[in-house]
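User: Show me a protein chain along with its predicted structure.
Assistant: Here is one chain, sequence first, then structure tokens.
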Amino acid sequence: MIIVAESGSTKCDWLISNQAGAFLETHTMGFNPFFHQPDEILTHLRANEELTKAAHQASAVYFYGAGCSSADRNEVILTALRQFFTVAHCEVNHDLNASAFATWDGRPAITCIIGTGSNSCYYDGNKVSEQVPALGYILGDEGSGSYFGRKIVSDYLYKRLPSELQTAFYEQYKLQKEEIFHQVYNTNKANVFLASFMRFIVPHKDHTYMRELVYEGLSHFAEIHICCFPDYREVPVHFVGSVAFYFTEILQQVAEEKGFTLGKIDKNPGMSLLKYHLAKEEVHGNADKA
């Protein structure tokens, strides 16, 4: 039994494959080593019925997550996984690796994450490499859910939203400045809180204000995270994440203006990632038999 987990800061998608070739999907909150400790992660794993059933049967668990970009941070997640999946081989890697593996089609490519946060990498089939770092939701995350959430909440508090959006935002959330300040400045999940306003942005995506907001953010993302690669005009540029999925039309406009070729767009890359690992297992298995 192989389990693949693809985690952003908001949620984690778990895909379980058994020897019969059947797939099972389940979900937990997202686990990020910047914000969560092993005990908290274990509590949420134990609360999931499907994962609990698989805990003593899994032979390998591959976890890819936001924030999992150093050995020290990865150890936070690994500690919880090893205590929960007691007989499995467990690996923890960065979510950039997941995006690169999930979109791999045999050609070198740039792969971008645009979900709660944002980032980009280059994958040639052997090595995943970054050109510029991800700076997180305070200094970076251009074009992400937290980026757009921050913009719209600021305009709401400044009363700079168009009147119909100002009214609709208040009616949907009934938020006062004090509650927003508490969520942003006094909790460890400000990025998730800000990204949650994508649930307001997406239904209003045809409004002129929203289209301009999203265009500006995605254009800014492309300038920093795509145009930094020397051959960005020569290779396909793939995307994973909900923001890229919901705003494909605007992303295509940005691609045409910046001169890059839009490749795959995968809202939830978990299944593609599982198929990647199953293919690797088959290759290794055949090699062992040879």
